[in-house]
Write a structure and sequence with these properties.
Layout (H helix, E strand, L loop, with lengths): L2 E2 L9 E5 L24 H10 L17 E3 L14 E4 L6 E5 L3 E7 L5 E6 L1 H5 L2 H9 L5 E5 L9 E3 H10 L14 E3 L2 H11 L4 E4 L13 H4 L5 E7 L5
Parallel strand pairs: 3-4, 8-11
Antiparallel strand pairs: 1-2, 2-12, 4-7, 5-12, 6-7, 6-8, 9-10
């Protein structure tokens, strides 16, 4: 069900929301499932989301292109797809950073002071292109970074071919643990492990994972299952300090 993330240990002023096919709870499924993709999102459903979770504004989504571009929000974004990027961050309160997924790995970042939030769309192409290091380089955090991995397709369901593994390991030779043994020219890949290895190499130690599989859990959309055009949203924002 769509819910605020509470299990991730971070400053209380940092809020994180993970949507699912259910708008508020498993009994509240819209007819076709709750969908954040701007091309088919229902305005009434989005209004209900904003109201139920006290969002500071409507979530606005980037044009995600499976690359390594990073955008900083210096004010609330105005329109969907205004920028082509796969990561966004802000240091401002009441500005939502959001990504869409349907099997790819959504990553949320902040630090121990809650001085920023970032949302990163990590498909294998973005991970191959070092989207996580690009994001941290753009932020230049001054305090310990905290990371949360949202729902994605898990390794047992993510089969890739041998050329995929060989190509990825040429650029990331320390990522062997992200793949199972190649059998009959195929392997199983872990987006979690790909991302975790990259972050650990950057000195990031505080990483928590949802461990929910978008392919198996019918509360989520899965592109690999049925090429769905629908998307979940993963978003974070900073609450203003109370006077």
């Amino acid at each position: 069900m769509t819910h605020l993330i509470n299990q991730w240990q971070r400053p209380a002023r940092v809020k994180v929301l993970q949507t699912s096919r259910s708008l508020i709870n498993p009994l509240s499924n819209p007819t076709n499932g709750f969908d954040v993709h701007p091309n088919h999102a229902d305005p009434d459903h989005m209004h209900a989301l904003i109201t139920a979770f006290e969002l500071p504004h409507e979530p606005i989504f980037m044009q995600q292109v499976h690359g390594n571009q990073v955008i900083e929000y210096l004010e609330p974004p105005k329109a969907h797809f205004d920028v082509q990027a796969d990561a966004c961050f802000t240091r401002l309160p009441d500005v939502i950073c959001a990504v869409m997924t349907a099997d790819c790995l959504p990553v949320i970042m902040t630090d121990t002071e809650g001085s920023f939030v970032a949302a990163v769309h990590c498909g294998w192409r973005s991970l191959y292109a070092n989207i996580l290091s690009q994001t941290l380089e753009a932020i230049n955090p001054q305090h310990e970074v905290l990371v949360w991995f949202g729902p994605c397709i898990l390794q047992d369901q993510y089969e890739v071919d041998e050329s995929f593994v060989v190509n990825y390991l040429k650029r990331h030779p320390d990522a062997n643990n992200a793949f199972t043994e190649i059998i009959d020219h195929n392997s199983l890949a872990s987006l979690y492990t790909m991302a975790e290895i990259q972050l650990q190499n950057l000195g990031i130690k505080q990483i928590q994972q949802s461990m929910e599989c978008t392919y198996l859990n019918k509360q989520y959309y899965s592109w690999r299952e049925n090429s769905t055009p629908h998307r979940m949203g993963t978003m974070a924002w900073i609450k203003p300090c109370q006077p």
